[in-house]
């Protein structure tokens, strides 16, 4: 299956079929995106705490960065497993390294902009994590994107991702209903933090983390050389300061930007960047509206009940998600790339199954590629590393499932998340 990967044309990619050359900015769309963003910002400033409009701006910057760099998690795992290309994985290590350097003092000292208690994402290690991460790994390869990829692809106009998002929400909601079984009735080792579960402290945990990232980057280089992996085809970009608005950004620049924005998110709301808890909230509100007794679910007990009974605009993750979509929309329009793409029977079925698997897996695994992998590792939690390893295992299996849905064979120059 993998032997003819390099013969697959980049033109088969439904997202970047129209991105081979720079196009004129879509000024009307840019204006519309800015107006919607301003209206939402003002609404949040009037009706919510000052933290919410700040988070919306951070979400805009996250979405803008993700789209401009086509910063991938799904594609990074796929390229590594299919052809041995580790360029994006090394960008992940730069992102994680920068994030841990920033997170260490923030978590150690409790640095916060608005007085919120600062906590990282440190989650239990057990059957729930392993099963959830594995099926998430399969789901993101079938659904065409991870959690962040789903949001920024929607912002870029990739039509099938709307289907992925709908079933992502459904899967997450079902996962929320089932979560007590997975976390309370099945084996779990509890949480483990390199910083607080050992004598290392945040300083020692930072050193160990950076050594791990360096080792992974080195191994990816060795694998590339051994497999003679082809390079990723560069995307077109403007020169000089215009590159901020048009064309692709270097992966390493985006890696640092995402880490800085995640650290700012941590200091703003007291938690790192997350995505899928909002999906569970949206889906649960819809389920409650149509008659399900959502309030009785174990997932919505205690402090979580407040979110269920409040406006979605009071939920910080929801605000971040809206910002990511709008930021990606503005970025795509600035590059002249916003365009609804073709939907086929094959990619619809893959999106339905992939969305359900990602949603259910995200709840079981205490997060997605952002909350569990990025946020978990940056918070020095062992569960983040395990999530990444197991999700790569799911990716490997998914390489053999993609052709069943008429999806292209993974290729080295695929730059979609």
Automatic annotation (TrEMBL):
One of its GO terms (cellular component) is plasma membrane. It is found in: Cell inner membrane. The keyword ATP-binding does not apply. InterPro entries: Sulf_transp_TsuA/YedE. It comes from the Bacteria. Pfam families: Sulf_transp. This is Putative inner membrane protein. The lineage of its organism: Bacteria, Bacillati, Bacillota, Bacilli, Bacillales.
């Amino acid at each position: 299956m993998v032997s003819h990967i390099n013969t697959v044309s980049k033109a088969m990619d439904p997202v970047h079929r129209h991105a081979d050359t720079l196009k004129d900015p879509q000024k009307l769309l840019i204006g519309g995106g800015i107006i919607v963003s301003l209206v939402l910002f003002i609404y949040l400033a009037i009706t919510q705490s000052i933290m919410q409009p700040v988070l919306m701006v951070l979400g805009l910057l996250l979405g803008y960065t993700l789209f401009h760099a086509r910063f991938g998690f799904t594609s990074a795992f796929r390229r590594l497993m299919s052809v041995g290309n580790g360029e994006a994985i090394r960008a992940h290590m730069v992102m994680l390294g920068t994030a841990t350097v920033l997170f260490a003092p923030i978590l150690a000292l409790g640095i916060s902009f608005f007085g919120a208690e600062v906590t990282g994402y440190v989650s239990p290690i057990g059957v729930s994590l392993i099963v959830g991460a594995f099926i998430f790994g399969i789901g993101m390869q079938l659904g065409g994107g991870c959690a962040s990829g789903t949001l920024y692809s929607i912002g870029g106009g990739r039509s099938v991702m709307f289907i992925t998002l709908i079933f992502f929400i459904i899967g997450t909601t079902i996962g929320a209903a089932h979560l007590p079984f997975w976390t309370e009735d099945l084996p779990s080792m509890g949480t483990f933090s390199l910083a607080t579960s050992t004598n290392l402290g945040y300083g020692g945990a930072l050193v160990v983390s950076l050594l791990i990232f360096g080792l992974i980057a080195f191994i990816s280089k060795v694998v590339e050389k051994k497999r003679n992996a082809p390079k990723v085809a560069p995307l077109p970009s403007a020169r000089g300061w215009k590159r901020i608005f048009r064309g692709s950004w270097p992966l390493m620049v985006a890696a640092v930007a995402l880490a800085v924005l995640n650290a700012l998110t941590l200091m703003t709301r007291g938690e790192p960047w997350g995505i899928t808890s909002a999906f569970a909230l949206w889906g649960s509100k819809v389920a409650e509206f149509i008659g399900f007794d959502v309030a009785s679910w174990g997932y919505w007990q205690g402090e979580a009940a407040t979110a269920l009974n409040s406006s979605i605009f009071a939920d910080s993750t929801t605000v971040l998600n809206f910002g990511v979509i709008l930021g990606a929309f503005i970025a795509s329009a600035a590059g002249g790339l916003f365009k609804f793409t073709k939907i086929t029977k094959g990619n619809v079925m893959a999106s339905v199954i992939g969305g359900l698997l990602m949603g259910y897996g995200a709840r079981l695994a205490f997060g997605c590629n952002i909350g569990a992998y990025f946020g978990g590792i940056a918070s020095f939690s062992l569960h983040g590393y395990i999530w990444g390893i197991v999700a790569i295992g799911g990716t490997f299996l998914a390489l053999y499932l993609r052709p069943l849905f008429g999806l292209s064979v993974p290729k080295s120059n695929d730059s979609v998340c």
